[in-house]
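@channel anyone free to eyeball this complex?
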Amino acid sequence: MALRSISRRFGSRVLSYRSSSVASLHSHATSFGFQQVKEEEKSKLVGNVFTNVASSYDIMNDVMSGGLHRLWKERLVGKLSPFAGMKHLDVAGGTGDVAFRIFDAVNSVKRRALRKVDEDSLEETQIYVCDINPNMLNVGKQRAAERGLGDNKSLVWVEGDAEALSFDDNSMDGYTIAFGIRNVTHIEKALAEAYRVLKRGGRFLCLELSHVDIPVFKDVYDLYSFKVIPNLGELIAGDRESYQYLVESVRRFPPQEKFATMIADAGFEKVEYENLVGGVVAIHSAIKL
Amino acid sequence: KRPIRFIQSASLTFATSGGSKEEALLLSAWQRSHPRVTKTQPLTPAMYRTAAKRLLGAGFTTSRLLRLPKPRPTTIIPFSYCTSSMNHTESPIGNQSVNPNQSDPTAAREEGHRRDESRKPRAEFEEEQARVLAASLRHVPRLGWTEEAMIAGSRDVGVSPSIVGSFSRKEAALVEYFMDECLQLLIDRVDSGLDLQNLIPSERVSKLVRIRLEMQIPYMSKWPQALSIQAHPVNVPTSFKQRAMLVDEIWHTVGDGASDLDWYVKRTVLGGVYSTTEIYMLTDDSPEYRDTWAFLDDRVKDAFDLKKSIQEAKYFAQDIGAGVGKSFQGLMNGVMQTMSTRGGRSSAF
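replying in thread with the prediction:
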């Protein structure tokens, strides 16, 4: 796992670079996998994808990643280091994987013992799970009920758009988006919204499938993505197209460095990313100051 | 002559590797003011880095050290925290119980002014992190060297406690910041006119180590935790480096004196003295740590006596060697004589 830092420097950006980045963002906004679509249609098409996959989303995650997605999410939450009294927003967190992990991290026995020492934190922890797709949220609420957290006031399920969040400015200590940002039509809008809702010192963390550069492994990964995953989708979820969209959208998403620059452009400081499994997954992190 | 040329060439390479001309000039000014550099003292990069840091402060560390052969990002950033935070008037450090002895204000301002001239703008998040760490130190006696202290510190500064998650090796960052800050305070204390002229070298060493250890007194109840954090394998490189810098600084202040011991051995011996005294201090109940200072004086005396003993042992060995050599020669002469006379006698047969 390699950790590379890009620190935000005071200085002007090269104009030509900016125009090329605008061009590629436009291409992201009008791409649905490898197809070209109109901007307005993209979110509808993505919505359809997730409505279709919602019920088998978790099983497919396990099958496609061989259970590794759990480790990735653990790593994400570890990096966040949640604390009691935290206000956290998990965007595109439909089925609640990350939210449950944060909840457990905060309420674990070890933490509760330490909470006695921390008298200042009288506020209750609040974890907001925001998703644009109500089907995904329903699956999440179901899973919460199964864990006995159905009535817990700490978990709040909100339907909303990552590009236009309904939360106040400077209200969140943490913002995570796991495997969601590539489905957003306008990435820079989502990043701007993340910047808006975070408090000073708040952290932005993004877990996303990303680009692999390692020579032989790249070919193995491509083979696996394009040959195996759509077939698995058909077999298990009965939906080949959605998983074809998934693997294509990963390829169209900006590479790690590029995405890190976009995060820095949104105003974040200390932008870093960490590659997991040679770049199959990358965790980008940043602070708002 | 050789060592001076080494520094000059070092400062040139330093200048060509990206250091500005004025920083190279400052370095050569330091050479001229420190003619004590003798032939026996090898100039390691660590040594001139320490001295250069004193002159050039934060700007040197964050931008320049990154280009030297052994970059150490983890120590660079914490060190620059303390130098810049010393310059911030709103920083709580100056008023903390951490610093029982206020350094002379005019000297500090001069040093700060010199640092400001050559300091490059630091990334904002580093400043913020430094502020959080400084505020967290106030909570350490109560909460220990833990994330909770850092969370409380971040609340004091008015920043979301999430920022604690962005420190790599969180508690270690706090401990390292404290170590760097103490080193800086020691340097400032020395610069602001500490009276060492009337003392013999062993007493100077004692005094400096005592000043440094006294900075830890407010945190003594939680210091074992800090030591255990420093001993984690992940944190050992940084903590070792910080201690090496501290020991280097103390020896540099004490001056070379009439020591013939090897440069590295001197640092190692002082490192041992410092560490043992530090650990002794953890369990010392005597009023004002009297026993610790007595222990320290004994150890320093032992170290200096050790040097004398090694010297004496060397002379003794030389004498014995000479004596043995002489007696061997006498033996050989005797043998040759006997052989020649016997041979003479035998030839008479």
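from a first look: Chain B has 14 helices and no strands.
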